[in-house]
Design goal:
single chain, 315 residues, mainly alpha, 16 helices, TPR-like_helical_dom_sf, Gamma-soluble NSF attachment protein, golgi apparatus, protein transport, transport
Length: 315
């Protein structure tokens, strides 16, 4: 089967070369037909799992579509060439080159006046590179979000911004994450998705507290009081309680909020911020019960053990 498909591919290439020849009666190469034959050859190579040859055929298809000034089809072919590299080499050093092809295709989509297709391709590229290069994935998601935003497709834009924000948190680029989250929140407000604004406020508070900026965290909550339904909501009460505990260095209160279902079941990157949050001057663990032991020898070791756990604890 594979051998048959490879033979078919070579037949299509031969036809393509014939289309490019000129003569006394044919002054111009037939770029359209040549591109079509290379596209068929690429599919045959792909079905035969000859991905490197499929990539080359797609690039030839793109070349002749470009000669024919059909940029959209050229971009599609270049994007497919990038996908062939991904399939052929998997997650390794070849992936950046695959992403370069897809980015080139996106530029051509933009030139052709099809920005939505460009944004979707950037999103796909981000997903491909994310397992091996988070920084590049952030860049691609932000570019895709920017394209959608320019087209006033805010729902698609904010979804991609959310991907970028989570990766920035994972990369510990918290200053940038704080900016991205504010932009997300503003977009959700613009499309009147207020429950998501509440969630983004919670994420903002966690990011700002990890940055050591209590004032910024408190400001996020205060600004959110203007959102319909926020004041008195579960999210609002949780953040007020968290900020109070953090400000008063009440480690037990902070622990309870950060380990509540509301925060534990957030997106994984934010949930990790919650469970790793520490009170300044705290010992880093949940406090034991504060009631005194009921005397006798049995109480003494427990007290000593607690002192060891929180040596140099709360101020």
């Amino acid at each position: 089967m594979a051998a048959q498909k490879i033979n078919e591919a070579h037949e299509h290439i031969a036809k393509a070369e014939k289309c490019l020849k000129t003569s006394l009666t044919k002054w111009k190469p037939d770029y359209d037909s040549a591109a079509s034959e290379y596209a068929k050859a690429a599919v045959c190579f792909k079905n035969a799992k000859q991905y490197e040859q499929a990539k080359d055929a797609y690039l030839k298809e793109a070349e002749y579509h470009t000669e024919n000034k059909t940029l959209f089809h050229a971009a599609k072919a270049i994007e497919q060439a990038g996908m062939m590299m991904k399939v052929s080499h998997g997650v390794n050093t070849e992936m950046p080159e695959a992403i370069q092809y897809i980015e080139k295709a996106c530029m051509m989509y933009m030139e052709n006046g099809t920005p939505d297709t460009a944004a979707m391709a950037l999103d796909r590229a981000g997903k491909l590179i994310e397992p091996i290069n988070l920084e590049k994935a952030v860049d691609l998601y932000q570019k895709a979000a920017g394209v959608f935003e320019n087209e006033d497709r805010l729902r698609q834009a904010v979804e991609l911004l959310g991907k970028a924000s989570r990766l920035l948190v994972r990369l510990k680029r918290l200053d940038e994450a704080a900016v991205a989250l504010q932009k997300e929140k503003n977009m959700y407000k613009e499309i009147e998705n207020f429950p998501m604004c509440f969630k983004k406020t919670t994420a903002q508070v966690l990011v700002h507290l990890h940055r050591g900026d209590f004032v910024a965290a408190d400001k996020c909550v205060r600004e959110s009081y203007s959102l319909p339904g926020y004041s008195g909501s579960e999210d609002c009460i949780a953040m007020e309680t968290l900020l109070q505990g953090y400000d008063e260095q009440d480690e037990d209160q902070v622990y309870r909020v950060c380990n509540s279902p509301l925060l534990k079941y957030m997106d994984n990157d934010y949930a990790k911020l919650a469970i790793s949050l520490r009170v300044p001057g705290g010992g880093g663990k949940k406090k034991k019960a504060t009631a005194p032991p009921e005397g006798g020898a049995s109480g003494a070791p427990a007290a000593a053990e607690e002192e060891d756990d929180y040596e140099g604890g709360l101020c």
